[in-house]
Amino acid sequence: MVHSLLFKVCLSGLDELRGRIHLLWGEKDKIFKLEVAHNIKEKLGNNATIEVIKKAGHLVNMERPFIYNRCLKKFLSSIMMK
């Protein structure tokens, strides 16, 4: 029940976001499964992309910091160039 409520809160208002959004998601996230990322991406539409980081859970930035930072830098540089 808490999960479904939290999920609804996460999705509310997403369609109002503007600009490009890049979801960096841990492959083994047990709190918000990969399906949640795909649902969020679907709700956001074409302005969103997903990148799944292998061998990472919910705290992807702490569990795989080098890979996370590389992915983040790549995304940031792609939006800086436009």
Question: Key features?
Answer:
single chain, 82 residues, alpha+beta, Rossmann fold, 2 strands
Give structural notes.
With 82 residues, the protein is α+β, with helices and mostly antiparallel strands. It has one domain (2-80): 3-Layer(aba) Sandwich (Rossmann fold), CATH 3.40.50.1820. The chain is built from four helices and two strands; from the N terminus they run H-E-H-E-H-H. The protein has helices at 2-11, 34-44, 60-63, 65-80, and strands at 21-26, 48-53. Strand 1, helix 2 (34-44) and strand 2 (48-53) form a beta-alpha-beta unit. The model has no long low-confidence stretch (mean pLDDT 85).
CATH architecture: 3-Layer(aba) Sandwich
Beta content comes to 5-15%
The chain-level mean pLDDT equals 85
Summing up helix and strand content along with how strands pair, one would put the structural category as: alpha+beta
How does the major sheet shape up?
2 strands, parallel
CATH superfamily: Alpha/Beta hydrolase fold, catalytic domain
Count of helix runs: 4
What is the CA-based Rg, rounded? 13 Å
Helicity range = 40-55%
CATH topology: Rossmann fold
Topology:
Elements: H1 2-11, E1 21-26, H2 34-44, E2 48-53, H3 60-63, H4 65-80
Parallel strand pairs: 1-2
